[in-house]
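Two entries, shown back to back:
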Amino acid sequence: MHHQYMKTMKKILCLLATSLLLLSACSDSSNETIPTAKRTVIVYMAAENTLSGSAQSDINEMIQGVKNISKYDNLIVFVDRASSKEKPFIIRLRDNEQQPADTIRKYEQDFLTSDAEKMKEVISWTMNHYPADDYGLVIWGHGNGWVIMNNASESRRAIALDNGSNAVSDKGQWLDIPDFRKALASLPHSFKFIFADCCNMQNVEVAYELKDVTEYYIASPAGIPGDGAPYETIIPDLFLYDDVLMYTKTCDDYYAKTDHENGHLPISAVKTKELPSLASATKEILHKIYEANTSVNTDGLIYYYSYSVSTANEHIMYDMNDFLLRHADKTDYLKWKQTLDAVLVANKKSMKWETQGTLVWDFTITEERFGGISMFVPLERYNNTHIKYNEGIKKMAWYQAVGWSALGW
């Protein structure tokens, strides 16, 4: 018992020491000449919500991971936590035992991480002060994919939740995906990759929205573990300069982190330049399905997200491959599947995952059915649901690209 107590106290002291380093170490970046790196990875940590308690442990993991990257490259982390005693700040993590976290910028005022203009300012400042041949972006925090709330009192949904009062609460402002895309499109540089360490972000709608701002988009269609990615292994992956190795190892290492018994996190990587071809192929196959008056049946389809209202669950993020496999002509499906395979350059299948905190396996997973990316399918029932999904989807570029409007939606 005493031995275990000493081990526990040692771990607590270590975490406290890291926290003190994080808050006290400060360098004036304006007086420091930073050479152009091969890659700068920016972590946008939106933690002014119920994930605030996980922020420091993930930063500690990043400090371990940064030991295995080149000293000439940059890992920069923007942090906003639920604390009235600190304002948002930016740190640079380095392999330095005495000072692993340099605070390179402290903001004088609090602001919403969900403010698109402030996000743009944070990332643009980092790009200008830590230039590189290419850039990666990690979005850290809560996520709801493309979903947009219709009720103003509940705000918009998607990413970067900020409650605005430094409380450990999820009642606050979100950043929707179209505004996220606009913020990134106005930056001085695009990204080699965007990695979303947020729940339910691997939707074809989100990937398509981001196709012009990043070469690769890495995310999970399902709910992710509460403690997020294993950054001690993933940080070195994100600095691999062979693209295939970068996204393959990122997916492999996240998948290897077992979340549940017999369950891993489904995760995939999208090659964004192939998305216009997928949109065209999907538009063609959807037209044939609806022209043939095929009865749309979602019973038993693989899904990744459900919104709980009283005792009912609204399933909305159905597996794209599973939907088209069930409803399309076999020949048409096989032709379309070749296009999907060109888009999903890495794809890890799981047998179960969480949706809204509940472990689900009320559908059958097979190699043939599993796709690893979700797609919204407009349905009559959504006209009467708590969130008006049929209206929200119209704000996404994918809606027009695949012709949902021409199909009567």
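entry 2 starts here
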Amino acid sequence: MTNSTLRLALPSSGALQHPTMSFMRSCGLAVSRPNDRRYIAAIPSLPNATVMFQRSSDIPGKVDEDSVDLAIVGKDQFLENRREDGDTRIVLEELGFGRSRLVVAVPDSWIDVTSMSDLADISVEFRSRGQDLRVATKYPRLIGRHLLANGVNYFSVIPSDGTLEVAPAMGFADIIGDITESGTTIRENRLKEIESGTVMRSEACVVSRKLSESEDGGILQTARLLLEMMEAHLHAGGYFEVTANMKGETDAEVAEYVMKRSDTSGLRGPTISTVFNPEGERWFAVTVMVEEKRLLPAVARLREIGGSSVRVSKPHYLFQSECKSYARLM
């Protein structure tokens, strides 16, 4: 590694490890890691980048202390573990995997507790008996803030790295604050979510330390390439490119037909080019970029106005006029 090398941290284990590697491959940024015991790896398509595998909970701290430049981590882990007065930031949200919710859950047997306001009342009852409501969680900062913001003023946090769902049944906590995807595990352990009990929705994201124009140019250029590839791949995910052949006297006439309906007007209008027909007829190739939800209506509309040989392709990248994530990084 040199001073011009971009350092990228990725999860070394846990629920995000394999989805992160798959995401990197889909962006054209496959990571070359000989085996799972190697904690340093490379990205062949980005020779000036080095991958450093870290535990998800440690990644925010590594970014804070400038040990790495960029990282992929769950938003929940980032907000819980980053330094409060630090200048790290999320530069690219919603990578499409690692979706979950951080929630407060109480025992099913608490039939009168259905909302955070009910929980606030319970905490007062506990205090009147000389006790605090005990909350087992891996997210003391986020859970504590949510409880206080909802009027639950009397509680003690029990940090735990183990299985939280069994805490109330085992008697070392009264309620839990934990991450869940579907809520199934919570329900299976005789717990329930309550109204206003969702602390946040989380998803994998890209975070960075503060970078500026004074940084080594090699680091900035590699960071830009990495973010451009990720952002363009994510943006392309919601679109299809539809092409059809149509008869017409002029390209303007064909464009008028196509643009009469929003289904076929595309992102910025259709691209129309001449098809050189050996029989002398005037044909044009019409190409539009449409959202996934408009794909079938667009195909139907093109057929309706005389389109034939309709072809659909999936763009791998869709670059916008500006890389917004790089702008946030700077």
